[in-house]
Design brief:
The protein is α+β, with helices and mostly antiparallel strands and about 325 residues long. The chain has two domains: about 10-115 and about 135-195, Rossmann fold (3-Layer(aba) Sandwich), CATH 3.40.50; about 215-305, Formyl transferase, C-terminal domain (Methionyl-tRNA Fmet Formyltransferase, Chain A, domain 2, Roll). Helix content is about 25%, strand content about 25%. It has helices at about 20-30, 55-65, 75-85, 100-105, 125-135, 170-195, 225-235, 300-305; strands at about 10-15, 35-40, 45, 50, 65-70, 90-95, 110-115, 140-145, 155-160, 240-245, 250, 255, 270, 275, 285, 290, 295-300. The strands form four sheets. A seven-stranded mixed β-sheet has the order 5-2-1-6-7-8-9. A four-stranded antiparallel β-sheet has the order 10-11-16-17. It has a four-stranded antiparallel β-sheet with strand order 12-15-14-13. Helix 1 runs parallel beside helix 6 and helix 5 runs antiparallel to helix 7. The longest helix is centred in the middle third of the chain and has 25 residues, at about 170-195. The radius of gyration is 23 Å and the shape is elongated.
């Protein structure tokens, strides 16, 4: 801690993907001092599988902040470095690795995590995606003190946000990242002032949000239209909802419902200005289609060029 209670605290920020960048920016702009950033090691990306640093690492470099990239945060060399930095608190946003007791005990005020759900709902890696896919009307963000059990620590602050009927996981996550950055900064302010109390999570309403698998994103056209809509929006942009036509795989963007129910599940109808697909209930109108290895395109343009024969269907 610095000399005055309100001079700001020393922080080591932990985060990896783009969604964590708004929180890093907010903390850098606050009265607190971000002395280092912890992020995941560079990872292969693209067709050439070139090693690429994380969005948080890139932003930290732009800000002139030291970047730490241990393979595991339990490595003795990293723990020694963290102790030398003497952080008062370590805020976390989507870091992507498990923190053990040896690391949790180093900062005086512990580690606090910004999580994109209203806990105890949707503990885990994909809370926004799972919330949309489940048909939730409201979600939010929480700041909580990290303990060794997954997303189980006491809550320091929360906000709620309505899920719009058109929200993709990307849309909703962007909003929560912006709002959550302010929530996290406010929590650090109150931790410094000593006027915040952590509240234990409720015992009811617990649910888990494991990372989406490729199978989670495969569209089952035998389901109702509303369920397919939620699935596609929850899987957009990643991992991307998909289906097959013959031997080819296609990613499918958000859809709209039509008034008709003239098609059998999976059957494709190409009109002048739209492509419709049958479900267990009403037909749906495709928005965008991405053939494997190609760019995403308007579904009507794809339909006109695909020259689909009678009986074409997704499976």
């Amino acid at each position: 801690m610095k000399g005055s209670r309100l001079d700001g605290v020393r922080l080591v920020f932990a985060g990896t993907p783009e969604v964590a960048v708004p929180a890093l920016d907010a903390l850098v702009a606050s009265r607190h001092e971000v002395v280092a950033v912890l992020t995941r090691p560079d990872a292969p990306a693209g067709r050439g599988r070139t090693l690429v640093e994380s969005p948080v690492a890139k932003r930290a470099a732009e800000l002139g902040i030291e970047v730490l990239k241990p393979a595991k945060p339990s490595e003795p060399e990293f723990l020694k470095k963290l102790a030398e930095l003497k952080p008062d608190c370590c805020p976390v946003v989507a870091y992507g690795a498990i923190l053990r007791r040896e690391a949790l005990d180093i900062p005086e005020f512990g580690w606090v995590n910004l999580h994109f759900s209203v806990l105890p709902a949707w503990r885990g890696a994909a809370p926004v995606q799972r919330s949309i896919m489940a048909g939730d009307e409201v979600t939010g963000a929480c700041v909580f003190s990290i303990v060794e059990e997954l997303d189980a620590g006491p809550v320091l602050g929360l906000l709620t946000e309505r899920i719009l009927d058109t929200d993709t996981a990307g849309d909703l996550l962007d909003r929560l990242a912006q709002f959550g950055a302010g929530l996290l900064t406010d929590a650090i302010d109150h931790i410094e002032a000593g006027d915040i109390s952590a509240i234990a999570q409720a015992e009811n309403g617990l649910s888990y949000a494991p990372k989406l698998s490729v199978d989670d994103a495969r569209i089952d056209w035998d389901r109702p239209a509303f369920a397919i809509d939620r699935q596609i929006r929850g899987c957009t942009p990643e991992p991307g909802a998909w289906t097959t036509l013959g031997d080819d795989r296609f990613k499918i963007g958000p859809i709209t419902n039509s008034e008709g129910d003239t098609l059998k599940p999976g059957d494709i109808a190409v009109g002048k200005n739209q492509v419709s697909v049958g479900t267990a209930t009403t037909d749906v109108i495709l928005g965008e289609v991405q053939p494997h290895g190609k760019k995403r395109m308007n579904a009507a343009d794809w339909g006109r060029g695909a020259k689909l024969g009678d009986g074409a269907r997704f499976a």
